[in-house]
Batch of 2 targets.
Target 1
Amino acid sequence: MHLSIVIPVYNEQVKISKDIRLASEYLLNAKFKGEIIVVDDGSSDATIETLTKLQRTSTLKFKLLQHRANQGKGSAVRTGILASRGDYVIFVDSGNCVPFRYATDGLKLLTSDQCDLAFGSRKLTESVITTPTKLSRRIFSRLFNTFIKTYLHVPSTFTDTQCGFKVFKTDVAKELFSSCQTKGFTFDVEILLKALKQGYRVCEFPIQWRSDADSKVHPFKMSYAVLKELIRTKKLLARLDRAS
């Protein structure tokens, strides 16, 4: 099996070296052939310097892609997935909130042809939350989930669209992301709904998750931008419906 691991980063100079080491250890321990793709989304800290130094001085092997200006998480994930060469591709958030070993559970769903996309979910009964998130983020998450299910008609069977731990068949991922127009936080919703419209099978799997105390996501500060993205997604899906 050849697995591509995509790690989008923005101002992650403290975490990224450990992320790459853990990704490399996972590929080695799982006996997978693979590649690690780090996409820097216009960081303003020393992330790029940290990564280039790591490439020069470390035995860790990874591909570094760079956006000169910050474009948004969706754009960074898109760049990494379109550059991937594996049979399967996973994108993971920086910070190791989900141990890499859970990727194997998602891959099993794909290799057994139970689905084409497998999303890690923090909200399944079997999932384990070791460090809960802040109350404000939990409130925002509930409001967000209610909104996307009523406004965008995300099926109620999906418990967690926003977890940064998703596994794809690479050909499917490239098809979906090549036309992805959501550059920011809510790109996952566009990808999910387009996948369902195109007849792809999407399933969720339980994970272990811990909250990242240093997360760059500030939900209520981002609420206006999130709302604008979801409205654009609604219009995009309506255009696709009219064209089909």
Note: Strands lie at 2-9, 33-41, 63-67, 88-92, 117-121, 128-131, 165-169, 202-206, 208-210.
Target 2
Amino acid sequence: MDLDAVEVGHDTRTSLMVRNIPNKYTQQMLLTEFMDNGHGPGVIDFFYLPIDFKNRCNRGYAFINFVDFKDILPFHRRYFGKHWRTFNSDKICDITYARIQGKGAMLKRFENSALMEKDDEYKPLVF
């Protein structure tokens, strides 16, 4: 990610993929951590932590869409290259742009998915 391009408005993408998430996090736990650091509803409008239903753990990555592309900067500074504190993990957070960009496109991706038949706790969160 070219943070300088984001800073000056040359890169206005809003959707990120956060990787190397310890698999003990639940979607609500991770969202709470992000919210505690100022990255909750109002700043983000889409959040999804995919779950492996066989072992009932997350798959190690999440998707987030920011309302304003500039809010990616403090999020990136806070998490990129850092260890996750909650589970005493050796995993180091990596952040890249998501292949699918924007809240609408992400919602469209999941609208006909079997995932939408699962319990609410496993579905993408929309704010």
Note: The two ends are 25 Å apart (CA to CA).
